[in-house]
Amino acid sequence: MPQKPIVYDAPTPEPRATTVEALQAQILEKLTYSIGKDPIVARPHDWLAATIYAVRDRIMDRWMESSRETWRTSNKRVYYLSLEFLIGRLMRDAMSNVQLMEPVQQALKNLNVDLGDLINMEPDAALGNGGLGRLAACFLESMSTLKIPAYGYGIRYVHGLFRQEMSEGWQVELPEEWLAHGNPWEFERRESAYEVGFGGHVEPVTDPDGLIRQEWRPNDHLLAVAYDTPIVGWRGARVNTLRLWSAQPIDPILLDKFNSGDHIGALEESARAEAITRVLYPADSTPAGQELRLRQEFFFSSASLQDIVRRHIQQYGDLTSLPDKVAIQLNDTHPAISVAELMRILVDDNGMKWADAWKVTKGTFGYTNHTLLPEALESWPVALLERLLPRHMQIIYQINADILGEARNRAKFTDQQIANVSLIDEHGGRRVRMGQLAFVGSHSINGVSALHTELMKQTVFADLHKLYPERINNKTNGITPRRWLMQCNPGLTRLISDRIGPAFLDDIEKLRGLEAHADDPGFQSQFAAVKRANKERLARLIKDRMNITVSPEALFDVQIKRIHEYKRQLLNIIQAVALYDEIRAHPERDWMPRVKIFAGKAAPSYWNAKLIIKLINDVARVINNDPAVRGLLKVVFLPNYNVSLAEVIVPAADLSEQISTAGMEASGTGNMKFMANGAITIGTMDGANVEMHKEVGADNIVIFGLSTEEVEDKRSRNEVPRTAIDSSPRLSEALESIASGVFSPDDPHRYRDLIGGLYDHDWFMVARDFDSYWDAQMRVNALWNNKPKWLGMAIRNTAAVGFFSSDRTIRQYAHDIWNVPTA
Question: In sequence order, what are the beta bridge partners of 244?
Fold first, then answer.
């Protein structure tokens, strides 16, 4: 039976006033009584904390009301499980969404404190790496905006991925200390702590009714403790919760060991537990690294499911209704072990029959696939799972037996098709395919762009799609326009509002009204002035951080994203070398000034990606210091790319580089952020670029390169890339200068193997797309020199971005997958 209902008719605090006077008084109160500082001696970080506490109090009122409303109405809840949440700085986001920016700014001004300085001091939460985590953050904000009751579940990383610094052009990984001084946005929930087990053994247990069930008896336990952060929707529509799990030992110190003098051994359990939530994506190139990463994934999945089940039983009492009241979305394969864990909870802990539990599980889960790359579709050695999660391995085997039986008996699959759909990969050592597990355990599997979804059906999940043809659907990614237009580009937001009215603030599709003004010379001039101001701000940042002077008059050509060979930063920097050669060889031509701006992190164990960063910095050193270039070309690599840095770069970009090898980028969201801020895309027909081409029109985007089909054809025929290189003198010269040590005189052979790979196999089609890319960049030159044409294209990009709002994406999830209403 459900527990006694929680009564909400008791007195509640009066909502906090939002006047300038009230805010000013409370900031002072927080400074004095929460921070313990006299205003006379308070430092900027003290004012930052006091301001956050004052703003947070006003968010608390709506947060608690949102929770009460969900309990009163018994609305279905959405739970979004993600190993990453790249939420960025929260203060400006929260103030903007509850319309407190102006009163807080004035309140601080009255206290002789500048709000802008405080905003820039707030650390970025180091909870993600790139697009996957930023998408999760955008989705949570949109769920709050659309009044969908939701929780995000993830890990409270102490250090996150890493802080990137440069040492002689090489990436250096250092701990990200974002929690060093606490996090004023979070609330520890000691009552929401769950035991998570590992290892041990499984024993059959006979119940009083004679039925035999399996009982897992782990030999290693730790606690998952919840920390909650409010996620505010636009205009305070709703405040949802990001719940992050911190790993803590059950026994922080083994006192007998400590007292016997074994001080280090006494703390071993504590260190082992805390390692789970210390770093995002520990290197999994070693067995120990693989085990830690699997422990992370199970830890947060198990804690989240225990929390979800506890909440559901508390309110409804009966787990058979779980699919009616709960929707759990798996953000990529990282939480895929949740399928086996929910089955264990339903069957072993709650006595549900296997068939009923499987129906409940499939009805509850949805799975979002973000990649077709084999290395990103996780798999784990069977031996590791059997040792670490023995009961879950049993459950996976049982699920697999059911699936393979269905494939053989109902679908009449061949042996090869049976092998393809199996949850166990038998090639090169038996491994559990986590993507397959997430697929079979979910009622909905979605891709994140139209092209990606079709490729899923044709490639990685082809036979599972034949077995379950109704499950795969598309949900093209989106971005929140609040952070990626209104907050990061207030000048453009004001300009648009003055021209077409403020209705787009609540319905981003109304940006289409800008199209009528795209060729208006007066509006173009105003639009250009906003872009110029944003470029001047970025130029100052580049000067401050890198001591490189760039001209805001130049075209800002930007590629900021995770460093990976398929994203082809290598193609971009090779083109920079070729352009450098052309400028020096033909100084008489009318070259336009260009600044190539790069940012992004390489995985610590990904040697080629780190080598590409070094190459970018080596090329930058030579080009930026060569007087023969006359400042016409500059190359900049900005270290430690994060949300806050992106919020400065994106509004300043003129050209958005979205140049991945066709068929390899699932969607992309950086392309959408640039589009919203009036940058023109140069890109392949890959990921969401395909839909951007449709939305903005062929005349307002610069497309180049091989198609997905052409890439596959060349790979299948093992075509020799050397022919493409030899037929392109410009490419040959650029590759020769890189490989021969022109840019690395201290180590002439540094890039020999990197460039040699383009001659040997060129898997990512860098050489074979080079001439097309060069020609596209020359088209960009011509467009840039025709300012009315360029500005018209830029304005039309902003006007067409409405489709790429995360509000649209979440509405589709809500309607097609979760079955929940939206505002």
Answer: 154, 227
